[in-house]
């Protein structure tokens, strides 16, 4: 019945087409709507859907090779009950194209009614103009794989349409930069790996081996590379500086105006923390960039700094890599991820528990379920302390607050644990408001989860734009959070205990 209803609806759309372009219009109708959710199609109605097909046909006619076409127009402004805008995009098919567009629409808080995104074999002229659908091209023609994205939205004010189109054009440009330089970024990473293997720097061999394995692991589809840039280090320990190398950056970092590190509102290349890293024995540095990715996922990009050395083993600079860890970095066992596994092994060895014992298994579980971004960025000493605190919550549930201040003073990462029966959305909001006030920042993100220890865990990211981050004792944080989660019954019990009244008799 569902397919019969769809067939009837699509047929109603195609019947409205006649004339020279009717074959293309009918073909487009099937490509656009044959696999779309039926309930969404019905909500629009055949007249609006026909308008959408004509709109997409027009965009195809405007397409030129390498130049995406974006349009945003009202579908039926005369009908106030069903007024909507149709967003059409025609572009060369590339990875991350669709999810990047959707990320912009979601971040713009637009209400989406219908989404279709077929990819079609097409034939272009020698000059790149769209000729027809299909894959049979003549001598002066060339085949192309085009991505057609059509999204029906609640009506958007005319004054807001141009800014949205401009943002989408910026998104598509970033996708183009990241994907066109993909192979070049892999080649640059491979060169860094080869340099570490053939000309090892003067640091312990075990550290070099782990760095090489992590870089190789990133290369093997565990990291979405979005940009790379080489920097040259000059100067000594106290006043050493980094400046962009003479070679052009890759991906989104091919634009010299793009910076991924900020302190407050100022972009920075060198900080005291980066200088400390460059002068330490650690070959790699992993952190978060200040900038959210507009490609693939709307989240703060991961930043990996790789030390560069000259043939004499002297520090010469940094290879700065930005991108996003793929899902495997978050789902694979911590014991199979380079760099993290060393930290985990050190924490387990330091604890001294037998691996098969109750405590050994409990600590391993804590580390396996610990936020992965934290595992990449935390030092071993802090991880060992925090992991044991979390492990003990399985024995005695209580409020715990575990803050980690970013080395660049850009944010504070705070893990808050409260008994699950005391947790609700109001508690989460009030705790977040308190942390924002305490750290003089803003709530950038929160991630609630419910481990198997009777606790609710919320990972708060408090962004900052000031200078030095306040360093607040965890006992103060925990005292305030404990007060926040108090219920009316708790307060009554406290008053009764102070008055030495047995409320069970009341």
Oligomeric assembly: single chain
Structural class: alpha+beta
Spans of at least 5 consecutive residues with low confidence: none
- Give the helix proportion (percent range): 40-55%
Shape: globular
The main pleated sheet reads as:
6 strands, antiparallel
Mean pLDDT, to the nearest integer, reads 89
How much of the residues is beta strand, in percent?
Answer: 25-35%
Question: In angstroms, what separates the terminal alpha carbons?
Answer: 63 Å
Treating each run of at least 4 consecutive H or I residues as one helix, how many helices?
17
What radius of gyration results from the CA coordinates? 28 Å
According to DSSP, the number of beta strands is 18
Describe the structure.
- The chain is α+β, with helices and mostly antiparallel strands and 506 residues long.
- Helices cover 42% and strands 25% of the residues.
- The protein contains 17 helices and 18 strands.
- Strands 1, 2, 3, 4, 5 and 6 form a six-stranded antiparallel β-sheet that branches.
- β7 and β8 form a beta hairpin.
- The chain is globular and about 80 Å long.
- The termini are far apart.
